[in-house]
Amino acid sequence: MIGNVQVYRPGMGLIYPYDENGRLVVEHGDTIRVHVEFNYRQPEGFTCDVIVYLGTREHKGITSTVRHTLPPAHDFTPASSINNLEIKKPGLLGGGVQPGIYNLGVEIPQGNAYYEIPAAVEVKAAPGVMDQLGGMITMIIVVMMMSMMMQTMEDM
Fold first, then answer.
1. What angle do CA 124, 128, 134 make, to 5 degrees?
2. Cβ neighbours, 10 Å, residue 144
3. Over the stretch 88-107, which tens digit does the pLDDT of each residue have?
4. pTM for the model
5. Per-residue 3-state assignment (H helix, E strand, C coil) for the chain
6. Which terminal residue of the chain, N or C, has fewer Cβ atoms less than 10 Å from its own Cβ?
């Protein structure tokens, strides 16, 4: 059911960040584009939802739902969907995706069909402002201490 997976990272474009285990590694702010392919057979036209999610079928973390109206088909007919999962940073009131390892799944409730790839996506914590400034602050403190030590040595 899952045909192709791409990751869009702002400022970089399309990337393919897989680790040594074949797991997709993403950060907050990334968008995962999942191409879903399926076959259907329905004598009358019908509407179906294609749901892509991170998590499990019972406990979906984030989801992307695309509704399709499909024409009648007496034989098995291929259809496809493109769903985007936005990896948002968790806020104070919840929402977003916590760092961790998640299953990547697809569900079509109207056809009672689903497919899940276990431990397929790892969400890494994006560095915060304090993480980025931490090294600079340490360096500034060291330089200040060195200048005070040099001044003390000159006074002796």
1. 120
2. 10
3. 888 777 778 889 999 999 99
4. 0.75
5. CEEEEEEEECCCEEECCECCCCCEEEECCCEEEEEEEEEEEECCCEEEEEEEEEECCCCEEEEEEEEEEECCEEEEEEEEEEEEEECCCCECCECCCCCEEEEEEEEEHHHCEEEEEEEEEEEECCCCHHHHHHHHHHHHHHHHHHHHHHHHHHHC
6. C
Q: pLDDT by residue (tens digit) across 64-89?
A: 999 999 999 999 999 999 999 999 88
CATH numeric code, 2-125: 2.60.40.770
What residue ranges do the domains of the chain occupy? Answer: 2-125, 127-156
